[in-house]
Amino acid sequence: MKARYPDSFHTILDSIADGVFTADGNRRIMSFNRAAERITGFQRNEAIGQLCHDIFHASICQSACAMEEALRTGAEVIDRPLNIINKEGKMVPISVSASVLRDRRGKVIGTVETFRDLSAIEELTKEINKGYTFEDIISKNRVIQKIFSVLPDISESDCTVLIEGPSGSGKELFARAIHNLSTRKDKPYVVVNCGTLPDSLLESELFGYLKGAFTDAHHDRQGRFALAEGGTIFLDEIGDISPLFQVKLLRAVQEREYEPLGSTKTVKADVRILAATNRNLADQVNTGCFRQDLYYRLNVVRLELPPLVRRREDIPLLTKHFVCRFNLKRNKKIAGVADNVMDLLMRYPFPGNVRELENIIEHAFVLCHGNVIEIEHLPREFLETSRYSKPVPKADISPLCAAEKNAIEEALRLRSGARQPAARDLGISTVTLWRKMKKLQISS
Q1: Where does residue 441 rank: exposed (0-12), middle (13-18), buried (19+ CB within 10 A)?
Q2: What is the CA radius of gyration of the chain?
Q3: Strands, E assignment, 188-280
Q4: CA distance 198 to 32
Q5: Pairing mode, if any, of strands 108-117 and 19-23?
Q6: What is the pLDDT of residues 213-231, one digit of tens each?
Q7: Separation between Cα atoms, residue 249 and residue 306, nearest integer Å
Q8: Measured between alpha carbons, how far is 82 from 59 in angstroms, rounded to an integer?
Q9: 308 φ, ψ to 5°?
Q10: How big is the CA angle at 388 (ends 383 and 393), to the nearest 5 degrees?
Q11: H-helix or E-strand containing 179?
């Protein structure tokens, strides 16, 4: 089959940077521009007359063909991401747009499809992001990056680790990363939320019990320490346990041994202990709410995770990550958030930290049926709180500089304007902080 178009038509198509081809109602290719040749590896004379799926071998050819959808609905398909296989057998990521092709009388005679090679963009994105991802943790914040750099050494050491940070800041992600990087990675990883159980239940949950230890103990039951044998036990919200139970836990942490309820026999535990809390345990010790000896046993290595409000530069990165995750989970093709949505996210205080950001994006996915998350898709509570949040920087400041400025201003606020501790929190020298303050016009 030979294309019947004037030479000027081909000249116009060949001047377009994106790949363009037209096909008849049976999906046979009628025209094929120069960019299409470059992206697919097929010459025009090889492609014309062929069925489009024989040229593109696209991931959506059989199940969700863009051209077929355009023919069926009469509506345009815009920027649908997919992968094709080029002539050399290599996978090429592209985005396609398709619409129906009509003659002068309005009769549908086929379809036209444009497609853009996303290989360079994907490679650039990978290059940019590769230094910001560790296991399932994503951050470009200097404090988190410092933790990334020492986490492999901490993981291999088998020492007890205390992770402090506000709720929703990712403490369990760090605990799991430590386990996954350790020599115990092929052994059990057991999580216990200490803040949700009273002493009596927490003791039996951790140490187990023997038949007859109490009224409802009709059989022996292993505790979490036994289930974690050879692996790692993660004691979440350790700061919420009572002073009475702290005494019993001290022996398990210090000696790695315990007695199940109803037993007089000591059980040795080959487990690594990781603990986390949203409280400042040092302050708890000073007020007498937490035992000093238990604190020192837990605090062999201490990781302090900053709240999201002190790592605003991570908000665009995390937003993109959650959009990608929910696209896969919900089989959607949302490209991202609108600029005004990102403005709101960048100035919001995030009392729920990373978990709250994830919930906001998930809520938006439920309501968004287009390609971009808009203001109307956001939770009402978030929008109401955002009205009273700090205004975003002026438009002449780049998003990166705006995030950096917000982070510096927040660090200075938390340290009452003291530059040295603020610089320490940010992971930079005092001289660098002064230079950045001058550049970003931040008053001391």
Answers
A1: exposed
A2: 29
A3: 189-193, 232-236, 257-258, 267-268, 272-277
A4: 71
A5: antiparallel
A6: 666 767 888 899 999 999 9
A7: 27
A8: 6
A9: -60, -30
A10: 95
A11: helix 171-181
pTM over 0.85: no
Answer yes or no: are the C-beta atoms of 267 and 260 closer than 8 Å.
yes
pLDDT by residue (tens digit) across 378-407?
A: 999 999 887 755 544 444 455 556 667 777
- Site of tokens 């080959």: 270
In our burial notation (b when 16+ CB lie closer than 10 A, e otherwise), range 92-108 reads bbbbbbbbbbeeeeeee
**How far apart, in whole angstroms, are the C-alpha atoms of residue 323 and residue 223?**
39
Tell me whether residue 131 is exposed, middle or buried, using C-beta atoms within 10 angstroms of its C-beta: 0 to 12, 13 to 18, 19 or more: exposed
Which burial class, exposed, middle or buried, applies to 352 when counting CB atoms under 10 A from its CB (0-12, 13-18, 19+)?
middle
- Amino acid 211 reads K
Tokens representing residue 408 in the block: 């510096």
Find the range with the poorest average confidence among 16-20, 254-258, 335-339, 419-423: 419-423
Sign (positive or negative) of CA dihedral 179, 183, 189, 195: negative
Q: Which pLDDT band holds residue 336 (cuts at 50, 70, 90)?
A: confident
- Cα–Cα distance measured from residue 405 to residue 358, given in angstroms and rounded to the nearest whole number: 23
Place of tokens 């920027």: 79
DSSP string, 92-151: EEEEEEEEEEE-TTS-EEEEEEEEEE-HHHHHHHHHHHGGGEETTEE---HHHHHHHHHH
User: Which tokens is 30 given?
Assistant: 């009628």
Does residue 2 surpass a pLDDT of 50?
no
Look at residue 302 and give its three-state secondary structure.
Answer: strand
Residue at token pair 């929910």: 326
Q: Are 333 and 372 in contact (CB under 8 A)?
A: no
Residue given tokens 């398990």 in the structure block = 252
* Number of helices followed by number of strands (H, E) in the chain: 20, 16
Helix (H) or strand (E) holding 173: helix 171-181
Q: Is the pLDDT of residue 29 over 50?
A: yes
Question: Is the alpha carbon torsion for 328, 334, 339, 344 positive or negative?
Answer: negative
What are the E-state strand segments in 237-360?
A: 257-258, 267-268, 272-277, 301-304, 336-337
